Amino acid sequence: MKKNNSPVLDREFIHLPASHEILNDEDANFFDKFLMKNLRVNTNFFRGLLISVILSVTALAVRNLLAPDTAGLQYVTFYPAVAIAAFAAGRVAGAVTALICAFFITYFLFPPYGHMAFAFHKELVWANAFFLINALVIILSFGSIRRILLKNNELISVIANSQVRQILENAPNGIIVINQRDEIEQINKRVEEYFDYTDAELLGQPISVLFPNRFKDSDAKNWRRFVEKSETTSIGMIRNIFGRSKDGSEIPIEIGINPISTPQGTKMLVSIVDMSARKALEGQIQQNDLQLRSMLDSIHDHAIIMLDELGHITNWNLGAERLKGYQKSDVLGKHFSLFIGKDKRSIQSANDQLSNARQYGYSEDEGWRLREDGSKFYASVIINSILNNTGALLGFV
Fold it and tell me: What is the pTM of this model?
């Protein structure tokens, strides 16, 4: 048996269109990462406030060191201090902390009311309220955009999955999708027909349940090992294996395996062809061939010889072996003109007989023929052409 060292598993990936074409896993998590990490929505409020206070005081202290209380200078240096503290807070602890930091500096440490002296000013309250409301709108907008995109993503996913499902259901062969644990995730109607299982009975089951025990490894965990050791066809289908139906009966199948890329990772698409009809036909052909051979061999006083379309011997009966004196193995593949002679005239005579049979369906001839020992005998020869159901020439008899 030929080993399949480079099985179908090494084929080029199939890419199924799905929702990740529009919004993949990384994109879908972008808003979560932005809100939860950069904006620190889930960070402890008191921790953020503490960082804001520390950064605000530090910024104001640096400002006071660089700019003493010169008239007007505190106003000039105040806004850079707010910007620096907010930027540092945003880098260290996220945008929410930066907003708290900016609010803290603006409200409590605004130059006219500095030195931690709290004073209630209506204009300042409204300014900061407007500032915070805008910040809140921005944060909520990110959440709304995320929800809208995810809703669209779900709709696209439903449509894509529906299209894939329709493709699978219309496939002429059985189709099984398995995950990385070799568990069945999806099947089509053909698989149900082949193995007599329902969709619900197979989903979540290891694909090995569809194969006889003798085709599994002793641990029965990696069914692909026996696949890799199996004989393959010229187009990569794995043949000469059997599937096991629900009632325990075995069916001859061929399978092909292709990796597919999905949002959940790499999965395997297993294509299954039921070979029962073909095997039955092959068995019938073999039976017919045995019957024909038995019938031909029962004829002892006539030589019956099978020729291909060029006149080479492909088979003959025991009567031909007795009359010609040759062993069957000595003449298979040789041109039938050897029974007439080896000179050009004999070869031309043999070709003329084939030409007449090809043109008219049969030809007749009488003359001397040669045995293997060189002796001659007089024979009457009839050659009939053999055609297939389309009228193409298959050979002669």
Answer: 0.43
